[in-house]
């Protein structure tokens, strides 16, 4: 064992994984899993650390973390209250009308002031809302070319309140003042959540006698110091999928591969090429918010190990083959629920099941409901009435008393609302139960999984083993189709489903398969069980590497320190009488605007500025210039081939190994 020991922790939707890695030999020394705790993931992190060797932990020099705290905070709308100020002629979005103001100002596409900034309007708005918020966000037209108005607004807000202010130009370098505003708004709302979580993790390592460099994986596959993440937490949304593709590459030794990460709630498909994750050209979208955050390109499927497997009444008679739905809702698997609630098997056995033609998502022969334990607040009278019918113990929804509702019918719309609010928890049959029936996974209660499989199989007059094999193939088909869509989106999902059903082993034939020319690496427990079924649809090298179950925790350690600088060069052109062109190249950096008459001079200045900025960032993180890899890309925008380009976009990226 070398002295270069690192610890990776991934707090996922179901499990919190930890891996101790000897980075010199790329050897996994020890790995453990513990259930993730809600709403604070720190408990799960503490539990998984308790399972690791305490003496080895004290030798750790580097800690890298991946967690869903940013994504969950946005989805659950639990962020800090923030006011957004949009500068320029912008329309306030409907969902932000109560905490957003638009004031005059902004710049044009050449960085010149378009309209004088209305500081009086900013002052009036800030004073009117300062007692209702804890931070501000600011975004101005073309601030990526000239951030003066955002800076002026920030200075004024600091003077008036002393509150944190997040500016759009600090987080994004792409056009789109509103999207930059949303990015700044979300970042501001995450500041206290990030600080609380990261400080707690740091304190936990200190309590255990660990002296470590602490980093966190961002959604673009790069890592950042805790101190940086506290300032820019929005960049950590989707850090889990980023960890999966990095972990897949690390564990398999494949610099270029496609990763399929099967989690509890969803399955993510992503790709790494020559050691660098593919990045989406579009900003990340989370909870309906479209941002300018650069994130890895991925396809996310609402189907995972804990996804609800249920039967729709409308499909019972029509289906030639069993017709079941996998997901999109996540439930507690029967096999795990039986450990938590020992009487559940008796409840299912004695239940007088609803008629097949009455089945829906909440009324199933294997689905039970109970209170989740979350505090019930701000409910309508009908919602409260439904909530109060729920018990602390699992029960079938049709066994509850609904006589006080019209005609005694169950208000499924209200039930769904309460499930979405996480006040009602569902227990049901899942892919995890399927694997307990097939004998490929046996962590929890096997007998109740078999009971659940038998109840569902009876609907289609099948043996439970045949039913589970069918479900496994269906789950593999979902993974295969999303893989093909990731690599080539010219197909429609319906077309691919039809093809897969006809030729992929579900229907009449299995003579044709999709061919994939790069290795497919499976991550997540227990993905190895799906290799044979996935191979029915995909002609590819499919690998579940050693330690695949903790691939995300390992992936946290595979991320590199990275800094990206984007500089726009606007080209002014004038055609002379003799047909020649007089050109002027305007560069826009944080140092301001500079003009050049020569393209090479402008590009050289921009690249030199970017390199200087990158080396400064790396030096601050303890990385020497010689250890930084630089990649430069220049893209010319040409609207008319007979004329010079109108714009040159220069992208300079620096990468360095994350090490002490």
TrEMBL record:
Superkingdom, according to UniProt? Answer: Archaea
Domain (Hydantoinase/oxoprolinase N-terminal): residue spans on this chain: 7-159
Per the UniProt record, which residue ranges are transmembrane?
none
User: Which GO molecular function terms does the record list?
Assistant: 5-oxoprolinase (ATP-hydrolyzing) activity
Could you tell me the Gene Ontology terms of the biological process aspect for this record?
A: glutathione metabolic process
The GO cellular component terms are: cytosol
Q: For the Hydantoinase A/oxoprolinase domain, which residue ranges apply?
A: 180-328
Q: What is this protein called?
A: Hydantoinase
Q: Which organism is it from?
A: Methanimicrococcus stummii
């Amino acid at each position: 064992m070398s002295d270069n020991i690192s610890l990776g922790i991934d707090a996922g939707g179901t499990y919190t994984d930890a891996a101790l890695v000897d980075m010199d030999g790329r050897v996994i020394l020890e790995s453990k899993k513990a259930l993730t705790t809600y709403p604070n993931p720190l408990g799960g992190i503490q539990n998984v650390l308790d399972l690791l060797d305490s003496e080895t932990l004290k030798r750790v020099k580097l800690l890298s973390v991946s967690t869903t705290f940013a994504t969950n905070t946005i989805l659950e709308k639990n962020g800090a209250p923030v006011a957004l100020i949009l500068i320029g002629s912008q329309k306030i979005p409907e969902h932000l009308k109560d905490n957003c103001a638009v004031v005059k100002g902004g710049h044009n596409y050449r960085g010149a002031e378009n309209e004088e900034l209305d500081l009086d309007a900013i002052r009036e708005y800030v004073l009117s809302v300062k007692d209702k918020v804890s931070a501000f966000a600011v975004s101005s037209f073309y601030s990526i070319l000239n951030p003066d108005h955002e800076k002026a607004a920030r200075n004024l807000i600091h003077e008036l309140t002393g509150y944190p202010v997040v500016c759009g130009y600090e987080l994004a370098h792409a056009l789109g003042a509103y999207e930059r505003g949303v990015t700044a708004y979300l970042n501001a709302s995450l500041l206290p959540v990030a600080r609380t979580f990261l400080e707690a993790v740091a304190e936990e390592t200190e309590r255990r006698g660990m002296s470590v460099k602490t980093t966190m994986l961002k959604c673009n596959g790069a890592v950042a110091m805790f101190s940086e993440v506290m300032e820019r937490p929005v960049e950590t949304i989707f850090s889990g999928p980023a960890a999966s593709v990095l972990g897949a590459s690390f564990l398999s030794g494949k610099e270029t591969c496609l990763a399929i990460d099967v989690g509890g709630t969803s399955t993510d498909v992503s790709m790494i090429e020559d050691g660098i994750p593919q990045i989406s050209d579009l900003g990340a979208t989370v909870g309906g918010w479209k941002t300018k955050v650069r994130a890895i390109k991925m396809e996310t499927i609402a189907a995972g190990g804990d996804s609800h497997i249920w039967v729709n009444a409308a499909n019972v008679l029509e289906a030639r083959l069993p017709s079941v739905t996998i997901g999109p809702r996540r439930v507690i698997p029967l096999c795990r629920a039986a450990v938590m609630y020992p009487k559940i098997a008796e409840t299912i056995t004695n239940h007088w099941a609803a008629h097949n033609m009455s089945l829906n998502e909440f009324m199933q022969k294997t689905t039970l409901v109970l209170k989740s334990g979350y505090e019930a607040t701000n409910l309508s009278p009908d919602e409260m009435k439904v909530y109060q019918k729920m018990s602390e113990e699992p029960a079938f929804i049709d066994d509850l008393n609904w006589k006080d509702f019209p005609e005694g019918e169950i208000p499924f719309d209200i039930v769904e609302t309460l499930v979405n609010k996480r006040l009602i928890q569902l227990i049901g049959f899942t892919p995890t139960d399927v694997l307990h029936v097939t004998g490929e996974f046996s962590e929890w209660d096997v007998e109740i999984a078999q009971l659940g499989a038998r109840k569902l199989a009876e609907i289609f007059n099948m043996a439970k083993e045949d039913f589970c094999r069918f479900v496994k193939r269906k789950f593999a088909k979902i993974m295969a189709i999303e893989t093909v869509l990731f690599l080539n989106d010219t197909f429609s999902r319906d077309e691919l489903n039809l093809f897969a059903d006809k030729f992929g082993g579900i229907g009449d034939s299995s003579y044709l398969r999709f061919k994939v020319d790069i290795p497919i690496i499976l991550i997540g427990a227990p993905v190895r069980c799906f290799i044979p079924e996935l191979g029915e649809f995909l002609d590819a090298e499919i690998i579940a590497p050693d330690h695949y179950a903790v691939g995300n925790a390992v992936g946290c350690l595979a991320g590199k320190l990275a800094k990206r600088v984007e500089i726009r060069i606007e080209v002014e052109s004038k055609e002379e009488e003799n047909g020649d062109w007089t050109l002027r190249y305007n560069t826009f950096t944080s140092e301001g605007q500079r003009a050049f008459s020569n393209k090479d001079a402008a590009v050289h200045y921009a690249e030199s500025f970017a390199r200087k900025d990158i080396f400064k960032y790396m030096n601050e993180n303890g990385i020497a210039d010689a250890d930084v890899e630089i990649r430069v890309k220049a893209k010319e925008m040409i609207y008319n081939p007979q004329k010079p380009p109108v714009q040159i976009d220069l992208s300079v990226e620096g990468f360095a190994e994350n090490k002490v």
